[in-house]
Each structure stands twice: as C-alpha cells, then as structure tokens.
C-alpha cells in the first residue's frame, strides 16, 4: 500500500538509515576547489608510485624465490620453472609500464583511459601466451614452482605500492 503522506512507497527507502543522513550531508555540501598551495600539500602527502618500481620489486622477489627454490630443491629445473613464473609476471608488466608511461598515452584523458584498457588487454594476452609456451620454453617444467612464483610475484604488487616515499616534515 502506498502512503499518501510520503513521496515514495512504504518500506525501506533507498539510502535509509544512518548512512543516508551522512550521504545527504555530503551531497548537499558545495564543492570547493583547492588552492595551488592546498593541491601541492595534497600531492606531497600522497606521492605517486612509479610502475617501474613495482616491476623492479617483482623482478627482485622472483629472483630471490628462484634462488630459494634452487637451494631447497637442489634442482635446476625447479629454479628455471620459478624464474619463468616470475618472467610471466614481470615481462608483461614491463610492457604495460612502458606503454603507460609513453607520451602518446597521456595526450588527453580519453586517450589515457583507452590506453590503460588496451595495454591491460595486451598484458593479459602476453601472460597467457607465455603460460601456453612454458612447456616448450622450459625443459622439464615444474608447474608448482612456476605457478607458486607467479602468484607471489603478483601479490608483491601491493607491497611495492605500500613502499611509497613519504617526505619527512
């Protein structure tokens, strides 16, 4: 049944509850542009991370893991498999980082958005191709070593992002 005293049907309304009050307050506040000084302070407090730093950390972790696998297993095939797993993350990531940091990718916001999409599709395609070629490229391939290193190298992305250089005040 629809109540005549309200402009919407009875029952839970969209955005009802305590959060709705907060959302209404935020939505009704005017947007104030930042001054140059405020923008500089904001940018200094939230520095960007170079994609090359992330790639370097992933490569370093991949090399360390391959060395650990070699030491623990005593097997060269396991070490090569681990290295190839790291390469399956690092090579496509480096291709994407190169494409994303090119001057062409930053011409306009629209070009930049399309560039991100295209480079991400390319990164996925190269990763899949490398995984499909793994048995031919690495003799006596060990899938557990390859996939384990691949997963760890992908997860290191978050560690590399958390190591932002903050200016000390």
Automatic annotation (TrEMBL):
Keyword list, A-Z: Cell membrane, Membrane, Transmembrane, Transmembrane helix
Domain of life (superkingdom): Bacteria
Matches recorded under Pfam families: ATP-synt_I
Bilayer disposition of the protein: Multi-pass membrane protein
Transmembrane segments: 52-72, 78-97, 109-135, 141-161
Subcellular location: Cell membrane
Main localisation: membrane
InterPro entries noted in UniProt: ATP_synth_I (IPR005598)
GO CC terms, sorted: plasma membrane
Region (Disordered): 1-25
Name of the molecule in the record: H(+)-transporting two-sector ATPase ATP synthase I
Organism, scientific name: Vitreoscilla filiformis
């Amino acid at each position: 049944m629809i109540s005549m005293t309200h402009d919407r049907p009875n029952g839970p309304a969209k955005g009802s509850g305590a959060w709705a009050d907060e959302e209404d307050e935020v939505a009704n506040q005017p947007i104030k542009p930042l001054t140059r000084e405020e923008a500089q302070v904001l940018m200094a407090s939230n520095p960007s991370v170079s994609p090359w730093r992330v790639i370097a950390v992933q490569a370093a972790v991949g090399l360390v893991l391959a060395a650990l696998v070699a030491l623990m297993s005593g097997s060269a095939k396991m070490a090569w498999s681990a290295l190839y797993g790291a390469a399956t993350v690092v090579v496509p990531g480096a291709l994407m980082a190169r494409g994303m940091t090119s001057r062409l990718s930053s011409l306009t916001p629209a070009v930049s958005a399309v560039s991100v999409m295209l480079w991400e599709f390319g990164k996925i395609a190269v990763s899949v191709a490398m995984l499909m070629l793994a048995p031919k490229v690495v003799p006596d391939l060990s899938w557990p070593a390859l996939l384990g290193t691949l997963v760890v190298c992908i997860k290191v992305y978050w560690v590399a992002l958390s190591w932002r250089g903050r200016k000390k005040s």
